[in-house]
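Researcher: We plan to redesign the surface later, but first we want a full-length starting point. Tokens attached.
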């Protein structure tokens, strides 16, 4: 798939556009990536309508589908850099794909704005000079959820997560952080279904057999819907607290409609309830352009492009080393709140909404939610320095 947002017309004398090479799993997870594309297209349109960057250079995005495969992602990244001569790379969804593109960025010394991949390794163990990450990491979102998980009376916990980098990272850090707050808890079962291929019946049966008092869930997309349906049918969640990463995001919550799992503690995006001026402006512009409501992916795509544009303006150049230096400490206004890209680990302080799922008017929604500022859920600098190569 190729999607190109061209520069505004300006004749032969128009300044050379800034070319952004964007890579994502459009065919692999359209529920998230298509709204994400809408988000970055909206940001490009806004920036270009206001004169572009650097006094008149338009943004041009050249988009490629990675097919959900790390090798394909690296191949198309190389095509974007070598053939399309892009100034910066951006995107990716799955953590293992993000890590592959990050390694390519390091080898070729090309700025990579990682939009979505959540693994902690992205900015810590495998972090590098050329990679920055927007979304709150598994550490950050686990820390947000642990605050509420630790307050539950449950002592016996089970986990269920997709068996790849993101799921493994999320479970590892959740267990660590929960044990730090509640040394009395024990983890009595772990289930690791293959991403996109969950056998929900056997997974739920194995979880129930361990008789947990609480479950930490990391599945998403169609796997999540199957898990919820099977667990509800079997009564596996009756009397069991569930803490669930990402489940409040409309990409995953909305398809379940009235079957949404009530009472689950989740991170997500209650788009229809946020009344801040920044979010209202984004919501109005998004609905005017697409006639649809935004998903969390829309926020990610939009803020990814806004971040790149802000870095270019701060650098005064599209030269890679200047943009990399500009990214460190960069502040960007997002529809959620102003965020900062930390110099110490290149992680943005973007937050997430934490709340509980309820069903209203036949569909799932988040209630009793709060915005958790990402800056409040990162470890001390000395911990980061131990985990990130210097």
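Model: Full-length starting sequence:
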């Amino acid at each position: 798939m190729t999607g190109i947002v061209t520069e505004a017309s300006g004749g032969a004398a128009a300044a050379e556009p800034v070319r952004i090479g964007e890579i994502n799993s459009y065919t692999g997870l359209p529920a998230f990536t298509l709204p994400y594309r809408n988000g970055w297209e909206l940001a490009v349109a806004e920036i270009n309508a206001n004169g572009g960057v650097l006094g008149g250079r338009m943004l041009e995005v050249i988009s490629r589908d990675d097919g959900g495969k790390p090798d394909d992602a690296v191949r198309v990244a190389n095509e974007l850099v070598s053939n399309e001569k892009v100034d910066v790379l951006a995107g990716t969804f799955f953590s293992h794909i993000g890590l592959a593109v990050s390694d390519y960025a390091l080898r070729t010394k090309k700025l990579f704005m990682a939009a979505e991949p959540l693994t902690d390794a992205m900015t810590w163990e495998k972090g590098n000079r050329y990679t920055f990450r927007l979304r709150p990491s598994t550490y950050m979102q686990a820390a947000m959820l642990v605050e509420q998980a630790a307050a539950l009376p449950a002592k016996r916990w089970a986990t269920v997560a997709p068996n790849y980098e993101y799921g493994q990272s999320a479970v590892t850090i959740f267990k660590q952080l929960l044990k730090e707050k509640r040394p009395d808890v024990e983890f009595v079962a772990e289930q690791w279904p293959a991403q996109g291929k969950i056998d929900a019946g056997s997974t739920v049966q194995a979880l129930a057999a361990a008789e947990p008092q609480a479950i930490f869930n990391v599945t998403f997309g169609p796997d999540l819907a199957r898990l919820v349906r099977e667990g509800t049918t079997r009564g596996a969640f009756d009397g069991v607290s569930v803490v669930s990463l990402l489940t409040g995001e409309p990409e995953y919550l909305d398809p379940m409609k009235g079957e949404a799992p009530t009472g689950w503690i989740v991170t997500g995006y209650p788009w229809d309830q946020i009344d801040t001026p920044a979010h209202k402006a984004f919501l109005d512009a998004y609905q005017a352009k697409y006639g649809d409501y935004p998903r969390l992916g829309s926020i990610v795509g939009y803020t990814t492009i806004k971040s790149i544009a802000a870095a270019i303006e701060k650098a005064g150049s599209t030269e890679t080393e200047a943009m990399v230096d500009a990214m460190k400490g960069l502040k960007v206004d997002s529809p959620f709140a102003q965020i900062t890209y930390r110099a110490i680990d290149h992680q943005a302080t973007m937050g997430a909404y934490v709340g509980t799922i309820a069903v209203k008017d036949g569909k799932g929604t988040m209630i009793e939610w709060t915005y958790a500022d990402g800056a409040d859920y990162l470890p001390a600098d000395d911990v980061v320095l131990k985990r990130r190569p210097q």
